Amino acid sequence: ICPSCMRVQVLLVVVIVACLAVYLNRVGHMHGFTFHYDHPNTVVIVGGGLAGLTAALSAHQEGAIVYLLDKEPRLGGNSAKASSGMNAVNTRAEHVAHSQDTIDDFINDTIQSGGGTSVPSLVDKLVRESAEAASFLESKGVDLSVITQLGGHSYARTHRAKAPPPNVPARNIGFEITSKLIAEVEKYSSTIHVLTNAKVEMLLTNKLGEVVGVAWRNSSQKAEDPTKEEYLYSDAVILTSGGYAADKNGLLQRYYPQGADLPTTNGPWATGDAIRLAERIGAKLTLMDKVQVHPTVFVDPKDPSNPTKFLAPEALRGVGGVLLDKQGRRFVNELSLRSVVTEAIFSHGFRVGEAGPTCAYLVLNDKAVEMYQAGALKFYMSKGFIVSYKDMDEMATALNMDKEALHKTFTEYNGHEAGMNFGKKTFPVDFVPTEAFHVITITPSIHYTMGGLLIDTQARVMRGTPGSGADEIIPRLYAAGEASGGVHGANRLAGNSLLECVVYG
């Protein structure tokens, strides 16, 4: 054979071997796994809450083929349960209200809430892109025209929807947002492929340490073979599967054992899957011991010790709800940081039952209910979480409170003097003794985990390099939402979770 022919043959062999390697890597079968790689611009997203939905739509807009995986039968996650609203500054709603709010005020409130442990660059991005985040949701049909001032905020900047017409059922803002985005995702079913009951078991990496896909299995009870795993290769993997507030015997026990036995507002899916997946390939975790206990969740009078509870939204205090102890006395500024209000309830609250939770009363009047939107409270009223009394005296008798002490409490409150009201400066409503009172028994519960995967301002997941004193990027791996850490510091500011999902998603 002539030398030139030999060179051609060798070259052909090299090309064939290379093509075969690519084929086996991307489409073939190996060790019982199935590989899929359908498009050279493919993104895999793990988790179908607000961060995942936002990421899916954003990647689609950039021309990517998207695979959105969620281990649950439906999308939405904890985002669908959010009820207070989303923070933003310099929005249309703020302009209509002639707000004096500024970017610097919002940044300072977020940093202060986090106890100075937030990553400044992450907070800066969160706040500066908040108006754009609100516009993104509004472009999908979400109404964010109502603003409320929540605890820890210098101004009213938490956005939610206005009350629907009387014949239309009210929906909490989280469900409203996720429903609109799910409908948007469904419009692009040819390029955004939604896989529910899809439990991701492993992140796939190559010899360069790049993340090149995921291994997953069908977690449905109806799956023909629930042990069969499939490989899905991609150009990027985005982890958006939430935090670990329901992982009592796992990450909570490991990092926050003192609160692992508290009830939680999270669904059973909040088990820190993304954190575990990324940790196995060297991802750096941050602030894992920072767990937020929300001060007010509903106590079911029929089942006060149930470990999973419904959130009594921050906005109930934002519209004027006040907290009382067993004797009918206030004991805290209801608009303080969540951590401050929680500690006060544990110090001044009362126990329901011998082994029940430590509780307090959250009290509203008709005006506060109207400001919150009465329709949105019908569900809680139907479950017996809210008890109404015709006036203050009837409430005092039913709850065995001292009437004179109770009248004194609200006389001082209606005086609007900060010195008599634990420093409170915002008084949305006054309480009239002869008007109706609505009472909720509440208790603190685990609500949010600030810790997670350390990211940079591009949502890239970082790897801690032992001995180097520096962090490096894990190529092609991203995280957003509660799966990430560093944005909120030691204590998340109310209303920042939905914002983080949109900005970083």
3D structure, described in words:
The longest helix is centred in the N-terminal third of the chain and has 24 residues. The chain has 16 helices and 23 strands. 31% of the residues lie in helices and 23% in strands. A hairpin with a 6-residue loop joins strand 16 and strand 17. The strands form five sheets. A six-stranded mixed β-sheet has the order 8-4-3-12-22-21, with helices on one face. The N and C termini lie far apart (60 Å). Helix 4 packs across helix 5. It is α/β, with parallel strands linked by helices and 505 residues long.
Secondary structure elements and pairings:
Elements: H1 3-26, E1 29-30, E2 33-36, E3 42-46, H2 50-61, E4 65-70, E5 86-87, H3 92-96, H4 103-113, H5 120-128, H6 130-139, E6 146-148, E7 158-160, H7 173-186, E8 192-196, E9 198-205, E10 211-218, E11 229-233, E12 236-239, H8 251-255, H9 273-279, E13 285-286, E14 291-298, H10 314-318, E15 322-324, H11 338-348, E16 350-351, E17 358-365, H12 366-372, H13 374-382, E18 386-389, H14 392-398, H15 403-414, E19 437-449, E20 452-454, E21 460-464, E22 471-479, E23 484-485, H16 496-504
Parallel strand pairs: 2-11, 3-4, 3-12, 4-8, 12-22, 20-23
Antiparallel strand pairs: 1-2, 5-7, 6-7, 9-10, 10-11, 13-20, 14-19, 15-17, 16-17, 17-19, 18-19, 21-22
Helix pairs in contact: 2-7, 2-16, 4-5
Question: Could you write a compact summary of the structure shown?
Answer:
This protein has about 500 residues and is of the alpha/beta class. It is built from 16 helices and 23 strands.
